[in-house]
């Protein structure tokens, strides 16, 4: 009854989708693991409409799942309890690039690749980049504090946000889009990384970085992860280093089968490290000099931009190739670099009979552990991660998938503080119930 009344009222203030066949596209996650349902998808066109939708939901006591590009991997944007989906995809406004401040204001629904085109036309760039750039949105990136491939140089999304505008659970709007780099007037409301549980992000003032068009990319074939870590230690002497991504022979075989791409190297290697440098001046000479000092089994250097994108594809196509193989259990962990070799030695026995595809962001010790078939070994793997002082979720967030293990990475005092913040900002648990804060 309340839901019916809310749906009717929402449809008077915003565009909605109620046709189940269309709404279904908002109810399933990227991996196919999470499949929910909703009576209504609200598609507001501006912040005022988002506020109206939230006010109605608060008055009717109806729960809401905020959603961006729906590229999340932990079930954090899927209506598993029949909630209203509040899609921010129509909030696609992009302000002028402020070259002096190196900032831009973007609506929550702006897709990362559209943001990149906009700011690159002005000679600047956004510091966060990853494979889902054609679908992931600014709001979702902030809500999950997305990481990706350039964290070693520019940090996670958190480091690239100056301020956020958000709608709270009661429909009130809080806005920090003024772009002041210095503003110590109290604490920051914790929307970044809140996964839609504390407010609905509607826009953001983003920090930009100089556009570095001179790039040099190489793929290293290596005997194992310890050798990759040794190479990384040397490569880090380069100021221009921007990316150090790794994958393994098993994943590469899957990617090649899925994409039809030829082998990138003459021989197959247990581990591959994809590195990229970017600088105002051609970084190739300094990268090549360092590469010569490494003991890699094989090194392939990209000749031009097309070649660079071809090398990226071997790494970036992992997610889709794995999805095509089956519905994966996706674990996204981070370990101190010194702990990685020992953890990786233990991993095969922890995952039992599952097919294991491992890739990730080496500089942050961020492993994407993808498992297909067999018994779900999440509990054993995450406990082992915690033993090494690692994080049970490096960059994908907690969502619904990881809440049972959050206590492995967060202390009782921290979890109590999480609950207190949630209680203060969303006392009726209308925003993304079941996600992050149990
Ligand atoms: C990536 O690094 O490609 C993403 O985190 C996606 C994934 O882990 O599947
Ligand atoms: Zn990743």
TrEMBL record:
Keywords, comma-separated and alphabetical: FAD, Flavoprotein, Oxidoreductase
Ranges that cross the membrane: none
Family under the similarity heading: Belongs to the FAD-binding oxidoreductase/transferase type 4 family.
Domain of life: Bacteria
The protein's name in its UniProt record: FAD-binding oxidoreductase
Required cofactor(s): FAD
Gene3D superfamilies according to UniProt: 3.30.465.10, 3.30.70.2190, 3.30.70.2740, Uridine Diphospho-n-acetylenolpyruvylglucosamine Reductase, domain 2, Vanillyl-alcohol Oxidase, Chain A, domain 4
Organism: Actinocorallia aurantiaca
FAD-binding PCMH-type domain mapped to chain residues: 34-211
């Amino acid at each position: 009854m309340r839901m019916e009344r809310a749906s009717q009222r929402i449809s008077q203030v915003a565009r909605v989708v109620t046709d189940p066949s269309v709404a279904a596209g908002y109810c399933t996650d990227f991996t196919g693991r999470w499949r929910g349902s909703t009576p209504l998808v609200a598609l507001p066109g501006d912040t005022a409409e988002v506020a109206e939708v939230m006010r109605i939901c608060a008055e009717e006591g109806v729960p809401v799942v905020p959603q961006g590009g729906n590229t999340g991997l932990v079930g954090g944007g899927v209506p598993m309890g029949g909630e209203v989906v509040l899609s921010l995809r129509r909030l696609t406004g992009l302000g002028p690039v402020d070259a002096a401040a190196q900032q831009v204001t973007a609506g929550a629904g702006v897709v990362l690749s559209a943001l990149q085109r906009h700011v690159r036309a002005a000679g600047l760039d956004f510091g966060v980049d990853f494979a889902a750039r054609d679908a992931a949105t600014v709001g979702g990136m902030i809500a999950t504090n997305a990481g990706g491939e350039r964290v070693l140089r520019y940090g996670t999304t958190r480091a690239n946000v100056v301020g956020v505008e958000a709608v709270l659970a009661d429909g009130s709007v809080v806005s920090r889009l003024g772009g002041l780099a210095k503003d110590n007037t109290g604490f920051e409301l914790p929307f970044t990384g809140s996964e839609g549980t504390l407010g609905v992000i509607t826009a953001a003032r983003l920090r930009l970085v100089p556009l570095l068009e001179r790039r040099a990319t190489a793929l290293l074939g290596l005997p194992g992860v310890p050798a990759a870590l040794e190479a990384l230690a040397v490569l880090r002497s380069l100021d221009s280093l921007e990316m150090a991504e790794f994958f393994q022979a098993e994943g590469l075989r899957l990617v090649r089968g899925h994409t039809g791409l030829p082998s990138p190297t003459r021989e197959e290697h247990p581990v591959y490290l994809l590195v990229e440098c970017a600088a105002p001046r051609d970084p190739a000479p300094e990268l090549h000099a360092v590469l010569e000092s490494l003991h890699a089994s094989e090194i392939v250097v990209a000749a031009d931009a097309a070649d660079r994108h071809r090398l990226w594809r071997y790494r970036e196509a992992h997610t889709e190739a794995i999805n095509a193989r089956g519905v994966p259990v996706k674990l996204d962990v981070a370990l101190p670099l010194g702990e990685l070799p020992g953890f990786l030695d233990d991993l095969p026995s922890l995952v039992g009979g599952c097919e294991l595809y491992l890739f990730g962001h080496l500089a942050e010790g961020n492993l994407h552990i993808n498992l297909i078939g067999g018994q779900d070994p999440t509990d054993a793997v995450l406990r082992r991660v915690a033993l090494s002082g690692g994080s049970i979720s490096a960059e994908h967030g907690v969502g619904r998938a990881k809440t049972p293990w959050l206590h492995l990475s967060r202390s009782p005092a921290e979890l109590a503080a999480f609950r207190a913040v949630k209680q203060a900002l969303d006392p009726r648990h209308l925003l993304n119930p079941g996600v992050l804060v149990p």
